Amino acid sequence: MSTMTQTQTRTHPVVGTLKPRLSWNRVPVSLISLGIGAILWEIIGRVADVPFFPPLTEVLATLWEMIVSGMIFGNLLVSLGNLAVGFGISLVAGIVVGTAIGRYRRVNAALGIYVYALLTAPSLVFAPIFFSIFGAGQAAIIAVIFMYSAFIMIINTASAVENVNPSLSEMGRSYGASEWQLVTRVILPAALPMMFAGIRLGMGRAVTGMINGEMFIAVTGLGRIVTQAGKSFDGAAVLAILLVIIVVALAAVALVQLVDNRMTSWVPSNSKESR
């Protein structure tokens, strides 16, 4: 009897004595990494005490002043407009040209060498050319964004189309699908998961092209603030705009990821994790 009582006591602990414990495993790793980075930035900024690398708290205070004064919002809208138009054109070109290169050997032979050459060339080199053609306006900035983002999407789309399982095309043809139906209903849907990897890279490069175009051609948007802050040797303002640019880039890539998840919901989750 006493043995049974002891067994029941061991197998049924008193719930009231349990205390909640903080599990570090539940804290996102990215949040911990951002916290460590912020602490290191603050320490290095105070220890180094150099004008162009102020502490994080000073940069955040400058950013808040710029937001309150209305300097950020209007220029951010201008930059987002340039980014949307430039990336949209690049995306269409990336899908159409990339599909043609990946699907047809003659197109690949004719255009492949140009695409790879322009991908490896420094995109900023073309800024003076676009300036002379389009002038100091939005068209030149959009052209720079195109040079930065289009070719990585073309190459990635071409690779995705080339790697589609040939049995899918054979099955489509066996059902009497035309070439247009085969491309739009079989090949492109099958290539989407790999294509989105290139679209994410293209979006990141488009943000870089947007800032470079605004700094070196039209001097507008967020690039104008960076240029003005650099000329006045205001390191806190430069880094404050850099934080805004990083947030824009992360938000843009997250938007692409959201679209990716919706359009490729048919892909098994374990396959997405391995990508």
UniProtKB/TrEMBL annotation:
One of its GO terms (biological process) is transmembrane transport. PANTHER family: ABC TRANSPORTER PERMEASE PROTEIN MJ0413-RELATED, ALKANE SULFONATE ABC TRANSPORTER-RELATED, MEMBRANE SUBUNIT. It holds the Pfam family BPD_transp_1. The keyword Membrane applies. Residues 72-254 form the ABC transmembrane type-1 domain. It is found in: Cell membrane. This is Aliphatic sulfonates transport permease protein SsuC. It is a multi-pass membrane protein. Coiled coil: none annotated. The chain crosses the membrane at residues 27-44, 56-77, 83-101, 113-134, 140-161, 182-201, 207-226, 238-259. Keywords: Cell membrane, Membrane, Transmembrane, Transmembrane helix, Transport. One of its GO terms (cellular component) is plasma membrane. It comes from Microbacterium terrae. The keyword Methyltransferase does not apply. Belongs to the binding-protein-dependent transport system permease family.
